[in-house]
């Protein structure tokens, strides 16, 4: 498929990975946001709803013809579709280690996630229930640093993983983030709010990434003028 020349000129070193997203309305809205933000491509893992399903097409409002979409990928082959030196960031802050790593400032304001439905959390609970031998570790569970979504995370090509609302992000996505030097990105919500809709979270992160890249480009342009 070919894409509009104007769209290709505005593509950014920013990718989106959809991890087991099953709701067609959410996926369509996410694709629309990805096209609007200037994502270079969208990768869909196995388990995601068919991107060409009618409800997805309606919600996407033509995004399929503005941003490359590669679907039905397994986690073993997905890294082949990432540019060199890409860092993978996960839109998830509900893991076992995340709460302990959130800054005191965020905790003081109640900026923590109340959702407990992610697949990863299920893995964590199962791990806690197991009778581990003395000295045994949980090294299989990636420990990713948590940072606020509005701090700089686009110094290298970036890929953002967004999971489905029922199961959350997968263990494989966290392992990929760890292997590329990525982090968990925290979107703060006030106490009592369960979580953000997947499409809303993806939109916030993608346009924040676009903002950061624009600011970096402006700084580089200013530096060249001074020299």
UniProtKB/TrEMBL annotation:
The keyword Transferase applies. Residues 14-207 form the tRNA/rRNA methyltransferase SpoU type domain. It comes from the Eukaryota. Keywords: Methyltransferase, Transferase. SUPFAM superfamilies: alpha/beta knot (SSF75217). GO terms for molecular function: RNA binding; RNA methyltransferase activity. The keyword Protein biosynthesis does not apply. This is rRNA methyltransferase 3, mitochondrial isoform X3.
């Amino acid at each position: 498929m070919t894409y509009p020349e104007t769209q290709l000129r505005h593509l950014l070193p920013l990718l989106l990975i959809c991890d087991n997203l099953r709701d067609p309305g959410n996926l369509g809205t996410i694709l629309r946001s990805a096209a609007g933000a200037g994502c270079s491509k969208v990768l869909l893992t196995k388990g995601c709803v068919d991107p060409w399903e009618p409800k997805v097409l309606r919600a996407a409002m033509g995004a399929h013809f503005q941003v490359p979409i590669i679907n039905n990928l397994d986690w073993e082959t997905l890294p082949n579709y990432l540019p060199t030196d890409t860092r993978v960031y996960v839109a998830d802050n509900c893991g076992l280690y995340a709460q302990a790593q959130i800054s005191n400032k965020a905790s003081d304001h109640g900026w923590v996630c109340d959702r407990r439905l992610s697949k990863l959390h299920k893995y964590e609970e199962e791990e806690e229930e197991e009778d581990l031998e003395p000295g045994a570790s949980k090294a299989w569970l990636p420990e990713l640093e948590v940072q606020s979504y509005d701090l700089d995370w686009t110094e290298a090509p970036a890929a953002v993983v967004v999971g489905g609302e029922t199961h959350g992000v997968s263990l494989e996505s966290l392992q990929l983030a760890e292997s590329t030097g990525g982090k968990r990105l925290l979107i703060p919500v006030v106490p009592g709010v369960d979580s953000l809709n997947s499409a809303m979270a993806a939109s916030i992160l993608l346009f924040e990434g676009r903002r950061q890249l624009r600011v970096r480009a402006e700084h580089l342009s200013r530096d060249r003028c001074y020299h």
